[in-house]
């Protein structure tokens, strides 16, 4: 009896059920796949005028045909080869200068479906089209590279002679403090306290970084600045001598009765912070610090690593020589008057003033109203624009030769979206002309698509398609530890839904270099988030950030970090077990002498695995399994097939893992190459039998497993 006769004799409910069963038998949507990696698009980063070959995968003899749809044009794709499980189709596009979008139209005996960047769908959804931007290339060295972020004051004190001293100067209501207890928790208002970390300290710890497996050192701001965070830059041309080198150390610190860095006689300023002024304005100190930085970068490069700097171009600091609110540059040899000091300052147009009230005009625009962070007024100053473009080129060029920029609050720059995009397009031109291999990586929350069209940024700090979904799934806590949501903890649907959506906001070459962090200087430490508690230093106390943490869950996060598309970025000390609430508690010192050596070893092992397999750096990703408290995904390319299983729950789970979907078609076994659980972690191998393309296995509670295909074992 044929299918039509069966349907005639059945009830409606039975008909629907049989239709679903036969649809599954006749057409397998889980076999469909394509993406923007080099396995499915060649060349993966095409130039203007290139012919791009696009591939599509379907089940063997499972579909009637597939069309590549580009705009209003449809091209029938040609079946070119097959293996035991799949047919592979090819089509192509000749590129002009404009962005190209495409999707796939799949014809089966039962109808038509579509395939785009989120997978199989029943309707055309242009928002999720695949896309290419001709001549958009991101640095190959950064694809899947291991980054290490250093907040320099808290990493290691290699040269105590350059430390900021007690009462050296006055900033935001009080004087500076030199912290002598390296293990002291940062104060709630700790912007003026300094622990002494410096470039010499990073240089002395390069063996450690190299042994860990670090490939790129990302330094939070290091230019002259009065704060320990240095996002309030005083002089973009020089490394701060307090983290560089002080060769001339004259003057005095503030006296007990000094209320500021100058006495209040406006006509004849009596400068009181004379030691600070000597240290940060004397050209001998500034040039010596730049020379030390040159030596540092040369040594990093000699070791096969790279350096990127933090660029703060939306705003500067109130101490900045262009504004000079503290008047430390006023009447100093070699410095022009600042815009705060005099209306005829050459820097007058660098800032937006609300009143004509000189000398000493306090009525200027501060970023988010902060008068210590004056916003730079590019639209009204060609001189400012040109100078910052000079800075953009300077530090990626000889003799400094840094390998790129991380851009602070990049979407805020300027006073309109139009100008913002113009600025970053010009910034890219300048940086790439000076150093074509430099990376441009922006801090950004939300959809970055408008900046990732090949003419502005290379990529972003990956909050939406990495940090946030992972922290919700594993801990139920928001990235600042300000909110707890039980409904998101262990929620596989929410995790994969977020990842599917936000990963499509990147082109492939941007995703491969995206900065994937679990922690950083703006958010709570991930190890603290594993306590699934809400808290801050001000409300809970710093010590509470250490309580109730779960290292087994932390290890799951690191396993995901080292196997997810992008550039895994370790925030200094995470690998050593550092805890902390959000800013400023996340800026605790690296615990030299008190490291968690097991966690360091854990990072080393996973970094080795990450580096060994190209699939983990530039391969495709497929979501294989999602249940409450359990997810699995695969990474694969032409060389390797890898499956990762994460069980967030406390109980063991029996699963059926469809490894056939990542191209495991000829092998009859996969090897476990690494695992972690409450009992610890191990690289002890274990074999799993593949039956009908699936692996039946038991996954222990709170565990992560990495499986690898075995290429030399065929059926």
Which range best describes the helical content: under 10%, 10-25%, 25-40%, 40-55%, 55-70% or over 70%? 10-25%
Distance between the termini: 36 Å
**Tally of DSSP helical segments:** 16
Q: How many E strands?
A: 33
Shape: globular
Mean pLDDT comes to 94
Low-confidence stretches: 1-25
Structural class: alpha+beta
**Percentage beta strand:** 15-25%
Radius of gyration: 28 Å
The CATH homologous superfamily of the domain at 25-134 corresponds to Immunoglobulins
CATH domain class name of the domain at 25-134: Mainly Beta
CATH fold topology of the domain at 25-134: Immunoglobulin-like
The CATH architecture of the domain at 25-134? Sandwich
SSE inventory with pairings:
Elements: H1 3-9, H2 12-26, E1 41-42, E2 51-59, E3 65-70, E4 73-76, E5 78-82, E6 86-94, E7 100-108, E8 111-116, E9 119-121, E10 130-132, E11 147-150, E12 170-171, E13 174-175, E14 177-178, E15 193-194, H3 199-204, H4 206-212, E16 216-219, E17 223-224, E18 235-239, H5 274-281, H6 283-302, E19 306-311, H7 382-394, E20 404-407, H8 417-434, E21 439-442, E22 459-460, H9 463-475, H10 492-503, H11 508-511, E23 515-517, H12 526-529, H13 537-540, H14 551-561, E24 567-571, H15 597-612, H16 615-618, E25 620-627, E26 630-636, E27 641-647, E28 653-657, E29 669-677, E30 680-682, E31 686-691, E32 694-699, E33 703-709
Helix pairs in contact: 7-8, 9-10, 9-14
